[in-house]
Amino acid sequence: MDLLAHLAAFTATADEVSFSRAADRLGIAQPLLSRRIKTLEAHFGGQLFDRSRRQVTVTEFGTSLLPYARDVLERAGRLDQAARSARAARTRVVGVPAHCAPVALAGVLRAGTEHGTTLAVRELPPLQRQSGLGDGSLTYALLRVAPERAALRVPLGLAAGRQLARRALHLEDLRPPRGVAGLPILTLEEDEVPYAQDRLARAAARAGLPETLVRPAGPAAAALADTLAGRARLLCAEPFARQHGASWTPLADTSLHRGYEMGASESHGESGEVPQWLAESLAEVTG
């Protein structure tokens, strides 16, 4: 028995002193309301209404139970309201790439406040952002996808201690002379996703670069130090390079650029969609 629905039928009938008006008030058919009243009477072991007269009246037994029925319904209503408030107040966690500009992340948090949503940002590698949406630890996330099918495309280039070129850079321009080792090209964790690594490896091979020339950067701070000292080149987006005082030249091969789409969790009552105001602020985060 759905106790709340049956108690609602009881209290509505007592208020309206009419089965038909009570059914209209609750938006149900009268036979259903009558069945609920009879079920409740059988459950409590006594008649709630006197049906022998022209107008329905509450029995003495029903009158003794009516205040408790109203109290249960009122408490249930407050419980529903508390649940709605708790859902509205819950912090939504947004998964973003590492090394985002703090001013852009602050814009995301401010946008949440302006729209009545408490947000927290968490910098995570690409695969953890994807899995976080699946397990519900993230509400929203920026997800890496191939640039040709991405909603947001971020040009990648090479950071260096000095300017490499004034135009877009082709990887074959970096082919070292015979007998020279050449400077390594370091990749950040954000670009160490399978499809991106495979594309970069194939592009480097076509350009005639030694296989060992492209490798993971490890800690970003150490990679930046090597880059600024002229001992390496770092694959990254322009804002990251400029933020740390490195020169930057874009790659001509756009298939090597970063692509992002915005994802939303469908757990915890979320709609599975990213609000437009959040999508706009996350676009700034990608750089």
TrEMBL record:
<keyword id="KW-0805">Transcription regulation</keyword>
<dbReference type="InterPro" id="IPR036390">
    <property type="entry name" value="WH_DNA-bd_sf"/>
</dbReference>
<dbReference type="Pfam" id="PF00126">
    <property type="entry name" value="HTH_1"/>
</dbReference>
<keyword id="KW-0238">DNA-binding</keyword>
<dbReference type="InterPro" id="IPR000847">
    <property type="entry name" value="LysR_HTH_N"/>
</dbReference>
<dbReference type="InterPro" id="IPR036388">
    <property type="entry name" value="WH-like_DNA-bd_sf"/>
</dbReference>
<dbReference type="GO" id="GO:0032993">
    <property type="term" value="C:protein-DNA complex"/>
</dbReference>
<dbReference type="GO" id="GO:0003700">
    <property type="term" value="F:DNA-binding transcription factor activity"/>
</dbReference>
<feature type="domain" description="HTH lysR-type">
    <location>
        <begin position="1"/>
        <end position="59"/>
    </location>
</feature>
<protein>
    <submittedName>
        <fullName>LysR family transcriptional regulator</fullName>
    </submittedName>
</protein>
<keyword id="KW-0804">Transcription</keyword>
<comment type="similarity">
    <text>Belongs to the LysR transcriptional regulatory family.</text>
</comment>
<dbReference type="GO" id="GO:0003677">
    <property type="term" value="F:DNA binding"/>
</dbReference>
